[in-house]
Amino acid sequence: MAATPPEGQSTIARRLNRLFEIVQPRGEERQYSNSEVAAATGVSGTYIGYLRRGVRDNPSVDTVQALARFFGVRPSYLVDDDADEQRAASTEAQVRLFQVLDDPGIRQLALRAAAADLSPTGLDAVAAMIDQVKILEKDAARTRSGRARAPKPEEPQEPGPAGGGEGGSR
């Protein structure tokens, strides 16, 4: 259960909850629990809950450092009221990127793309292929679970060159 504070809550409550939303246990699609973060940081799970709900908003330096270390951010991200939202969004994007790059397969794919020195058009083509594979994998998962989609009707093909046989271009 996410502990989302009301809009007027402290910076640490908003940003800590955002980190709980972004950072997930490796290989899982769920949020860490307060207890899991507590076990890894030495900060009480109850106190983490208080911080997330805005009940407490003045943690010790040690607490801020432990939470920042766990989530892979600078301590200032959690407590700096003056940091603009663009900088906070940049930090959150970096956290998501680091989490994604923790997967060896994704990291290898990114390194191959970088080493290939692809043009913007080439990168767009690779992205389109990834999108297509994602669709195919979702369809395969539905088929395995017995909820297969009805096949899409074939797109009408234009007749080929004179003679009307095969060979129309796509």
> Shape, please?
globular
Taking pLDDT < 50 over at least 5 consecutive residues as the criterion, the unreliable ranges are: 1-6, 162-170
Quantity of strands, as a count: 0
- What is the CATH T-level topology of the largest domain? 434 Repressor (Amino-terminal Domain)
Beta-strand percentage range = under 5%
CATH class of the largest domain: Mainly Alpha
Q: Tell me the CATH architecture of the largest domain.
A: Orthogonal Bundle
Short description:
The protein has 170 residues and is mainly α. Helix content is 58%, strand content 0%.
Question: How would you portray this structure in words?
Answer:
The chain has 170 residues and is mostly helical. The protein folds into 2 domains: 11-101, Orthogonal Bundle (434 Repressor (Amino-terminal Domain)); 104-144. It has helices at 11-22, 34-41, 45-53, 61-71, 75-79, 85-101, 104-115, 120-144. The longest helix is centred in the last third of the chain and has 25 residues, at 120-144. It is globular and about 50 Å long. Mean pLDDT is 80; it is low at 1-6 and 162-170. The chain is 58% helix and 0% strand. The chain is built from 8 helices and no strands. α1 runs parallel beside α6 (85-101) and α2 (34-41) crosses α3 (45-53).
